[in-house]
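S1.2 Input.
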Amino acid sequence: MQLSDSLSMPSAGPLRMGSADKAAIIVRLLMSEDAMPRLTGLSLRQQQGLVRRMAALGPIDRDTLATVAREFAERLDTLGLTFPGSLAATLELIGDRLSDEARASLAEMAEAEGPPDPWRRIAGADPERLKPILVHESAEICAILLSKLPVAKAAALLAELPEDRAHVVAHAVALTGSIGAETIARVGLSLVAQLDAQPSPAFTANPADRVGAILNAAASATRDKVLEGLDAQDADFAGLVRKAIFTFDHIPKRLEPKDVPRIMRQVDADTTVTALAAAMEAAPVAVEFLLENMSKRLAEQLRDDAEARGTVRGAEGEAAMAAVVAAIRDLADAGEIRLIEPEE
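S1.3 Output.
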């Protein structure tokens, strides 16, 4: 139940108390239980009214408190869900879980419902799209931009600026106090136009990561030949590709031991046995790493099954090892595990 709902609760007859008084009592009760909700979802008028009622109320006896709390609990029991009530508020609630394209499109629709707010779009923009603005715009414009962003995003962007540039922009923030609302709005519209003018990237991953992903799925012989050719043509790019590559042999260096059981649950038993059988000759250190970091019973069973399977070479073994690697990368991409960064 939202506090805005409680502001309109009907009065309990015996109490002769208005809904604003009841809301103030509920908020004070929640504060006493260290369960105070955020009040930013209320309008300015509602927040001001709530604080005024809390200031005006005196001591509340136990019977009155119990009656108000019981009425509030009854309202909660009948309430299933509440929704923001507008496209703009809904976008603020769920916007960070949408794609950039969907968020931008819905932001335009939200602005059409009410007064345009370019800063809503700017605040939700990918930091990578804001970096060019911080490099090329004046310090005053950058100061306004950082001041209108969420604090964490502004701090991260400021930290990536060259030290001398960061000092100038940070000092310019001190000069923004006297800037009028109309100027702020015009700056916002100008920055939105710059964001719209930026070309949309055709790929989300950088070139080295894309080549690395392709070579991850390639046979080892193909991978070695391609890397050899890249070394001759562009050694720096080849180095980046090597850092992006993750093969079965890299498992002991890049995978946290505690994540091994989770990985094993993602791969079917037959594929796991085939991969271990193939890797006993091709990547024995990786095999031992996996077996040492799972339950003893399961490790013994998999070792026996892999040894009984015998030598597995060629495409079948490569495919099974690639399936284990793919499971690791999928979990890493989903944020469920963290891979150790490769050494330089």
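S1.4 Remarks. The two ends are 53 Å apart (CA to CA).
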